[in-house]
Amino acid sequence: MVATDTKMQAVLLKGQGGFEQLEVRDDVPVPHPAPNEVLIRVGAAGVNNTDINTRTGWYSRAVNDASDSGWTGAAPHFPRIQGADACGRIVAVGAGVEPARVGERVLVEPVFRIPGEPNRYRGIYFGSERDGAFAQFACAPAAHAHAISSALSDVELASFPCSYAAAENMLTRLNLQAGETVLVTGASGGVGSAAVQLGKRRGATVVALASASKAAAVASLGASRVLERDTPLLQALGRESVDAVVDVVGGGAFGELLEVLRRGGRYAVAGAIGGPTVALDLRTLYLKDLRLIGCTVLDHGVFADLVGYIERGEIKPLVSSVFPLKDIVAAQQEFLLKRHTGKIVLIPSAD
After folding, report:
1. Is the pLDDT of residue 124 over 90?
2. Quick check: 58 pLDDT over 90?
3. Domains and CATH numbers, the chain
């Protein structure tokens, strides 16, 4: 079976800049799956920080120079269809893929690896180095299109891939164990709220940082304690009071996060919404035998584990709002207000 559509609705990112760089088109050619790829009719796609960071050139460390403005450290190529979160159904397959996969409902694992070498990363992120899910159709490697059986809607399933995979990857690298205490920053956002649920699933005690208006929602996800995000941590928790930190904020609170870690504690980071530059006292790092872990590329097996958690109902989706794909600017504007808890999801036209 091959998709008969030749043109599709998609959002093209034309370059770096403001919202004017996002162009909604209805005449974009439907892609064709290459060997070992599948073509997916996208049912829903989630909005992420990386979409906005790429558009604005946030990843660049240079001034007036876009040569390193992609998240990999290289310049992005335009136009690009963004969107790393995708739930949909396979409608066509490339050479080397079993035709029986047509019709499968899938989630896309967004960090692509070298075929046959699961521990080597390609440097390709769905919706960044290649076209993604902000369209009616998208191609992905067959190995990264994970079949899923769930009663959840496409919108609910699209809330999982990036945020929950990032959070589970951080907890995996931290080797978080039952009975330990983990501190989660930015706990009302996509990755933070996922980390709260996934930390609770592991049997850990979760302490979360979030705004007061979102405290009840974060507590309902499994946080044992929710602190106002600007709370002085040493005063509230005490020195050497937590085993691990999941951080997506960075900024000025970084030093206190290391102070509240116990000796031998572990710190994992996968975001810097509070500021990418932090002050590090190396004496704190080495005298306490701390481990600082940067997390982007998923460890092998993390995404498959996540699919299992979803299928068994061990974690739940948290969707803040839903927009038609054509209203992507309004969706990103709401995202930037940071008033939401969970994920904002886009739905492509069904036509």
Report:
1. no
2. no
3. 7-160+317-347 (3.90.180.10), 163-294 (3.40.50.720)
